[in-house]
Amino acid sequence: MSTNNKLSEIYDYYKKSKAAKKVRQDRLRKRFYAFILDIYIVVFANKALTFIWLSFVNNFISNISTSPKVSSMAFQSQTTQLSLAIMFFSYFFFSYYLGNGQTLGKAFFKLKVVKSHNVTEPLSALDCFGRSIGYVFANLLFFLPLVINFLRHDQKGVQDFISQTHVISTEEFAYALAEIQAESEPVEEVEQISLFG
């Protein structure tokens, strides 16, 4: 049985069981908390970077007359918005790519981003790029597109559709891996027996 069939069986089991709604709500709640934690990390890192930049600029511009100072403050506010978007994209891209599908928030709440068509395959740079672009898009629209996660039965949002990924718990991932490995073991034993038999 392929990975796609195994994953669809897992989802069918969750849909049919009475505990399905509780499991989905728990996963969605964890996703929400993980995202909030990630946002705090991004904003804190951006504030630290902005503070370093502003202290450098203020020390350099302190000897200049008032009018360039005023224009530099307007420039600084615009660069803060740009640096937040860059930090936002970079954090999610590198976290997913280097963290094996987990940001710090998702790791803390035991969640993992996996490919929709193959759970066991690691995320590619293109998958991480698409997911990060989805988050930047949601950020530009004041995170309103993330409401889709709460409305859909499969809890997929804009970032999931762009990157063809979805979020599962690490327990679900371990279960899917164990099932796939259990299916592949008897095949190997049969091949070994036929070689020696």
How much helicity do the residues have?
A: over 70%
**What distance lies between the first and last C-alpha atoms, to the nearest angstrom?**
26 Å
Low-confidence stretches at least 5 residues in length (pLDDT < 50)? none
The largest sheet is: 2 strands, antiparallel
Instruction: Output the helix-strand order.
Output: HHHHEHHHEH
In DSSP terms (H or I, runs of 4 or more residues), the helix count works out at 8
β-strand number: 2
Our estimate of the beta-strand percent is 5-15%
- Rg calc: 23 Å
| Whole-number mean pLDDT | 81
Assign the structural class, choosing from mainly alpha, mainly beta, alpha/beta, alpha+beta, or little secondary structure. mainly alpha
- Outline, from the CA principal axes? elongated
The largest beta-sheet arranges its strands as 1-2
Structure description:
This protein has 197 residues and is mainly alpha-helical. It has eight helices and two strands; from the N terminus they run H-H-H-H-E-H-H-H-E-H. It has a two-stranded antiparallel ribbon with strand order 1-2. The protein starts with a helix and ends with a helix.
How would you concisely characterize the structure shown here?
With 197 residues, this protein is mainly alpha-helical. It has helices at 3-16, 20-61, 66-98, 104-108, 125-140, 148-151, 158-163, 170-196, and strands at 111-115, 165-169.
SSE topology sketch:
Blueprint: H1 3-16, H2 20-61, H3 66-98, H4 104-108, E1 111-115, H5 125-140, H6 148-151, H7 158-163, E2 165-169, H8 170-196
Antiparallel strand pairs: 1-2
